[in-house]
Specification:
The protein is mostly beta strands. It has helices spanning about 65-75, 100, 120-125, 165-170; strands spanning about 5, 10-20, 25-35, 45-55, 90, 110, 115-120, 145-150, 175-180, 190-195, 200-205. The longest helix is centred in the middle third of the chain and has 12 residues, at about 65-75. The termini are close together.
Length: about 210
């Protein structure tokens, strides 16, 4: 589930009248009242979904999609994390499935932990161009020129078994990865590299 964008605090000032028994009418002017507007999920509100890149890296034999999803979820729940609560999945494919089949078909924007805009919706995310690079870890720290496992083309479909480290269980072949600096299609399909190299994961709220 996405997060409704929070309203801020604001102050209002107005005069009120107070009746006190035995003291007549007392005017109290310029009363300052602080009102906190909690997040609202009315249909008119802007609901967003968060994406981040993990702070830890793994070699290509990390075990598979379920293991990568567990790493994403664990990092989202770290005490240092600033991302909203929810379910997070790795942007990752194997020979049977991929983000096109697994992910929520977002009708709302995808943003970084600091609300930086990435894409308008899922179709915009997978059209080969991003509004901003996916370049932030769950604590809000910016990552420059880092890479993450994907095995996935920018359109969200699996890239082919040759780019998946043998279902993410073998370090002796090669896997496809994306990078945190790109806003074109190479954000997801940057290079194929030896699976013995450690890479991060890109994690998307569902």
């Amino acid at each position: 589930m996405g997060l409704c964008k929070k309203r801020g605090e604001f102050m209002i000032r107005f005069p009120i009248t107070v009746s006190l028994v035995g003291f007549g009418r007392v005017w109290v002017s310029a009363l300052m009242v602080a009102i906190w507007f909690a997040p609202l999920c009315a249909e008119a509100e802007e609901v967003t979904y968060t994406v981040f890149v993990t702070s830890q890296s793994q070699k290509g034999d990390f075990g598979g999609l379920a293991q990568a999803d567990a790493i994403c979820q664990a990092e989202a729940e770290l005490p240092s994390s600033i991302v909203p609560e929810g379910r997070y999945l790795a942007w990752l494919s194997d020979t049977e499935t991929d983000p096109q089949t697994l992910f929520t078909r977002y009708a709302n924007p995808i943003v970084l932990p600091d609300w930086t805009w990435i894409a308008d919706n899922f179709d915009d995310l997978t059209d080969g161009s991003l509004a901003h690079a996916i370049s932030m870890d769950p604590s809000g720290a910016t990552l420059s020129a880092q890479t993450f496992w994907s095995g996935t083309s920018a359109d969200g479909t699996r890239s082919g078994s040759a780019g998946m480290c043998a279902e993410w269980k073998n370090t002796k072949i090669r896997g496809l990865f994306g990078n945190t600096s790109a806003t074109d299609s190479t954000w997801s399909s940057f290079q194929v590299r030896g699976c013995h190299f450690a890479q991060r994961f890109a994690c998307f709220q569902q």
